[in-house]
Amino acid sequence: MQYSFMNQEVILFIIKNWPHCTNQILQATSMPVKRETSTLLYLRPDLVKMDSARNESGVDQKRLSIPNVYTPIWWYADFPNHYAGEGAKATRELGQLITEHYIDGLVQALKTIKADTKTLELQKEFFDKVKTN
């Protein structure tokens, strides 16, 4: 089975490691609500209701502890309000910093992907071997 779309071969690329973050971004992105709220304050401030940011508890409830085991219900167990962190600490400036960081990472990844010549060759080799077996 060769992956194709409209008679064009398709390769799936997944960005798994974003560029290194500054300490400010690392601290800000450790809790989703602050990161997400900051990003929206930068991109779509009209959608953000900062007066509501203090109405929900974003404290980790730590209601489930099974060492070295993951369960799909972990997020609800830790954050039953589906809210982690402190949205009231979000800023537009931080949102701009985060957004530009991810855009830079995406641009770099796309440049690397466009310059790649080996992946398609290896994918063809793989599928050719699979067809013969």
Largest sheet features: 2 strands, antiparallel
Low-confidence stretches: none
Which class do the helix and strand fractions yield?
A: mainly alpha
Give the overall average pLDDT. 83
Q: What's the N-to-C terminus distance? A: 12 Å
Q: What percent of residues are in strands?
A: under 5%
Q: Tell me, what's the shape?
A: extended
Quaternary assembly: single chain
| SSE topology string | EEHHHHH
Radius of gyration: 21 Å
In DSSP terms (H or I, runs of 4 or more residues), the helix count works out at 5
List the helices and strands and how they pair.
Blueprint: E1 4-5, E2 8-9, H1 23-29, H2 32-43, H3 74-78, H4 92-115, H5 118-132
Antiparallel strand pairs: 1-2
Helix pairs in contact: 2-4
Which key features would you list for this structure?
single chain, 133 residues, mainly alpha, two-stranded antiparallel sheet, 5 helices, 2 strands, 47% helix, extended
What would your notes on this structure say?
The protein has 133 residues and is mostly helical. It has one domain. 47% of the residues lie in helices and 3% in strands. It has helices at 23-29, 32-43, 74-78, 92-115, 118-132, and strands spanning 4-5, 8-9. A two-stranded antiparallel ribbon has the order 1-2.
